[in-house]
Amino acid sequence: SQQGEEDPQALSIQEGENATMNCSYKTSINNLQWYRQNSGRGLVHLILIRSNEREKHSGRLRVTLDTSKKSSSLLITASRAADTASYFCATDMNSGYSTLTFGKGTMLLVSP
Amino acid sequence: ETGVTQSPTHLIKTRGQQVTLRCSSQSGHNTVSWYQQALGQGPQFIFQYYREEENGRGNFPPRFSGLQFPNYSSELNVNALELDDSALYLCASSSGGSGYGYTFGSGTRLTVV
Known about the structure:
The structure holds two protein chains of two kinds. By secondary structure, chain A is an all-beta fold. Chain A contains no helices and eleven strands. Chain A starts with a strand and ends with a strand. Chain B contains no helices and eleven strands. Chain B starts with a strand and ends with a strand. The relative contact order of chain B is 0.33. The chains are: A mainly beta, B mainly beta. At the A-B interface, strand 4, strand 5, strand 9 and strand 10 of A face strand 4, strand 5, strand 9 and strand 10 of B.
């Protein structure tokens, strides 16, 4: 079953613009992670935010977490064509062992 | 530091056959998880191994089984293949415990015909 749901399903922007993706989830979490996937291959870990954190930055990435609304957002600033990929949020729930539950992803297309 | 390596990269099997997929964990990682990703979907958790024991399982039937070896490499076995088993199978390793990101392999694309 899908724990998270990303919004929008697809996003098309021009290089230099910012891209914002949102994720909603259903149950309490230990942390939330964002991953990137190029062309249906392996996932690359981008950033992890713990349940007691509200905002985190990594390079051009900014992630926010609102546990009261059970939602997170990923902002990519100054997008590049190389950012074209699918982006997934994944929740690590308080289930006794650590594992990830993924949403369906947002497909981002950045045009030159 | 090596990443996660999966083999083979592509595989075509006939319905009813059995398949074994392999994964070498990232150095220093003692936990391996397997995920199934159908086309257009997010990865679905199959199971996780920690120190050679299965310590968590998703909603997959018993014909999906696995092993973890002393060097922390792992296998995913699927018996009695069905057409719906066609998917990208991803292996991910971590150092265990919550609060750490996972390192994923590039996946094995399984097609069942």
